[in-house]
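Bit of a strange request maybe. I'm writing a small parser for structure token strings and I need a real example to test against, not something I typed by hand. Could someone generate the tokens for this chain?
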Amino acid sequence: MPEASLWLGVLTAAAAAGTWLARRYALRTNLLDQPGERRSHSAATPRGGGIAIVGVLVAAALYLMLRQPAMDAMWFAFLPGLLIVAGIGWWDDHRPLSPWLRLAVQAVAALALAGGAGWQSGQWLPALLAFGAAMVLVNVWNFMDGINGLAASQAALAAVAYAGLLAGSGYWLALALLAGCLGFLPFNFPKARIFLGDVGSGALGYALAALLTAAFLGLPAASAPLLLLPLCAFLVDAGFTLLGRMLRGEPWWTPHVGHLYQMAARRFGHGAVTVIYMAFGVAAVLLTYGLSHATWGVTAATVVAAYAMSGALWVFLRRGWRR
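Reply from user aminoacidic:
Good idea to test on real output. This should exercise your parser:
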């Protein structure tokens, strides 16, 4: 395998070139996100830039399959699942589809990942985790992809956290995900010249679900709770917002601007909010690394405390800003 720095550098450059090409394609074909009352942007912007991240992940996975014949079974299932999620997202970017059709296709991809995890481990729990993580994270990243730089930067930080917990193919794919995000971000933050699109947000969520499952398979039980730390900011904001919309009888599957990050962006601007979430993500990465050898009680208590504090902050800020 190449040096990690060379791997990162080559794939980051490839992602940047792919994003540039995706932007040219979007402008030529009029593949634009139009502003509206359910959007957080004010100007028509090309979308579909996440196809470059997908390309980097696919290339990295194929390279690893060729170089490592003993590659874990789960990664062979990961590649077709990723292509399924990205494919339905790319289609939806061009021609909006029924949310239920997208969900059904995502379930097929989640089953592929679950099958790989179950085959590799010989147990039902990793398979169940893989299916649940894929279904949740694909949609959470889609829900949270609403302001400049947010979804890609949080995925990059989570990839850094998981890279520190993984070995072998999982480590290299975590770095590939990081490289894809790094190559895309200059086109999306601080000013958005192109958006991820559903092709990108779905792929990010699916890749993170695969990395989380791979880390779960390789980690001691004491470290397993730490896998939730890098996802805390997104899971709390998306989870509380989704629950609130359901309780109010709103159509939760439709676009809206009710997330905490969207409310904050209207007050403070996209850049400031993304940087705040980045700081939160960096803290999560440091906690993940710092507690990697702690006991189960310490890691579980830390994760519970992090989610409880984040949830309380979400409630406090949302109530204050709504007034």
